[in-house]
């Protein structure tokens, strides 16, 4: 096969943008990947680089190099049209002439993952630092003579215990999330009596609700079919949703657990008459560490991981998750699972 046919096929199929410039910074060639990444109205051939890419750092680097002021750098990172590219400059010299090859690799996804990782580490450090600072402060005060008074001792130890519990909950939740994400915590599907899961979880929250002056009701019809699911993981979903419903509902309010068959699915609703969630926050509440009101959630012992865990588990069941909420009116978190 002719060499140029092979080279053309490589340039056409490669997932890296290629732009070839002459010594006056005009384009000689661009491969399809480049043309798709930087849509210019007409063909790029014959156009100057600044008519194709508006990035000042890249223009400056290329122009300085072509003017003989600088050596071509190994690579430069640019952002253009909301995407990130790693641009490698390769000069070709031939019989005194100069041609510059630009290879552009789309690194938007790597950047996104990098940002998520950085945010995650920052969030975890912050969430651990807050209770740890309290534990340190209170224990130092006790060691500095605060232990002499029995009442102070007891009170401070309680605070230390509360913060230590909070830290261990955070670590448990992080481990659960990490196991779910890395598929180490397998979701084993089997027929689950969801009515039993809802009622036993409700029993576990009865005292917490009573202490806060909140009524819990349940509406589960007789003969509700079982669902295909993982018993313990589904229990975790109901615990997290019921915990939120009680936590974010003021005294005098109510929470209702209901379930109903809906076609080939069973739909479970956890409804409360609580503070509700502003519409602009709803798309974000399933993100790790996202809280509508950080200070309030933290005061209530929350770390913002409960709903991230719920989302993962429901996704692992191929189920559907839905929220309806209005500030001051209350929220309903619903999920559907396959009936069996
Ligand atoms: N039923 C609800 N009513 C009002 N706001 C809610 C409700 N459920 C969740 N939210 C909002 O969504 C946020 C995220 O919930 P999530 O369960 O992930 O975290 P958390 O409850 O703050 O902490 P954690 O669950 O780790 O104890 C909460 O901080 C709260 O702002
Ligand atoms: Mg929660």
* Main structural class: alpha+beta
Mean pLDDT: 92
Question: Bound compounds, please?
Answer: adenosine-5'-triphosphate, magnesium ion
Estimated helix fraction: 40-55%
How many domains is the backbone divided into? 3
The CATH architecture designation of the largest domain is: 2-Layer Sandwich
Strand arrangement across the biggest beta sheet: 2-1-5-4-3
The N- to C-terminal Cα distance equals 59 Å
Report the uncertain regions. Answer: none
Radius of gyration: 29 Å
Largest sheet: 5 strands, antiparallel
Q: Number of DSSP helices?
A: 10
Name the beta content range.
Answer: 15-25%
> Which CATH first-tier class of the largest domain would you pick?
Alpha Beta
Order of helices and strands: HEEHHHEEEHHEHEEHEEHHEE
Q: Tell me, what's the shape?
A: elongated
DSSP E strands, number: 12
CATH homologous superfamily title of the largest domain = Histidine kinase-like ATPase, C-terminal domain
């Amino acid at each position: 096969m002719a060499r140029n046919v092979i080279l053309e096929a490589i340039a056409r199929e490669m997932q890296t943008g290629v732009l070839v410039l002459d010594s006056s910074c005009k384009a000689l060639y661009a491969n399809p990947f480049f043309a798709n990444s930087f849509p210019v109205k007409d063909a790029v051939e014959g156009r100057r680089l600044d008519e194709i890419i508006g990035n000042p750092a890249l223009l400056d680097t290329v122009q300085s190099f072509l003017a003989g002021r600088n050596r071509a750098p190994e690579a430069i990172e640019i952002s253009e049209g909301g995407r990130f590219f790693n641009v490698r400059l390769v000069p070709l010299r031939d019989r005194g002439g100069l041609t510059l090859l630009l290879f552009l690799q789309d690194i938007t996804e790597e950047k996104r993952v990098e940002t998520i990782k950085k945010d995650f580490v920052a969030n975890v450090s912050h969430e651990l630092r807050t209770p740890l600072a309290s534990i340190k402060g209170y224990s130092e005060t006790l060691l500095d003579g605060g232990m002499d008074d029995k009442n102070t001792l007891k009170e401070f130890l309680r605070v230390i215990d509360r913060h230590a519990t909070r830290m261990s909950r955070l670590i448990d939740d992080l481990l659960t999330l990490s196991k779910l994400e890395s598929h180490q915590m397998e979701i084993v599907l089997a027929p689950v009596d969801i009515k039993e899961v809802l009622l036993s979880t409700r029993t576990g929250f009865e005292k917490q609700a009573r202490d806060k002056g909140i009524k819990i009701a349940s509406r589960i019809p007789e003969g509700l079919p079982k669902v295909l699911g993982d018993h313990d993981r589904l229990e975790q979903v109901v615990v997290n949703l019921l915990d939120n419903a009680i936590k974010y509902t003021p005294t005098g309010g109510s929470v209702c657990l209901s379930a109903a068959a809906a076609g080939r699915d069973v739909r479970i609703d956890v409804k409360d008459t609580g503070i509700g969630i502003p519409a602009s926050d709803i798309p974000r509440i399933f993100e790790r560490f996202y809280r509508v009101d950080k200070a309030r959630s933290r005061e209530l012992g929350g770390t913002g991981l409960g709903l991230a865990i719920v989302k993962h588990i429901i996704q692992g069941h191929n189920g559907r998750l839905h929220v309806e909420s209005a500030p001051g009116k209350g929220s309903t978190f619903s999920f559907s699972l396959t009936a069996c």
